[in-house]
Amino acid sequence: QVQLVESGGGLVQAGGSLRLSCAASISISNIRSMGWYRQAPEKQRERVATITAGGDTNYADSVKGRFTISRDNGKNTVDLQMNSLKPEDTAVYYCRSEAYDYTAYWGQGTQVTVSS
């Protein structure tokens, strides 16, 4: 089982930046893909960004050019740098891992609130 712990959420004004971090309980070099997802009130959870073991990244159209996902295999962390934040980015952000057998684990989430 993989435990994921997110940190770095908070309250920021529109146009500001936040950096989220996800710490995994195992070596992430053994994990096929890791990603960040978010869920706003009364909305479905959506994919924000993912990164594979090989470093390939993928972003939702709504965050392209503003968010950057990165992984540090030495620290077993995956970060999400969020710039030019908008009120519509307000949500609970979740870290997700996907193993090579496609088993997925989720973190507990961290709240990001962007004020206008």
Helix-strand blueprint:
Elements: E1 4-7, E2 10-13, E3 18-24, E4 33-39, E5 46-52, E6 57-59, E7 67-72, E8 77-82, E9 91-98, E10 104-106, E11 110-115
Helix content: under 10%
Q: The biggest beta sheet, please?
A: 7 strands, mixed
Task: Tell me the radius of gyration.
Answer: 13 Å
Mean pLDDT: 96
Unreliable segments of 5+ consecutive residues: none
Percent in strands? over 45%
List keywords for this structure.
single chain, 116 residues, mainly beta, seven-stranded mixed sheet, four-stranded antiparallel sheet, 11 strands, 53% strand
Written description of the protein model:
It contains no helices and eleven strands. With 116 residues, it is mainly β. Strands 2, 4, 5, 6, 9, 10 and 11 form a seven-stranded mixed β-sheet that branches. It has a four-stranded antiparallel β-sheet with strand order 1-3-8-7, with no helix packed on it. A hairpin with a 6-residue loop joins strand 4 and strand 5. The chain is globular, with a radius of gyration of 13 Å.
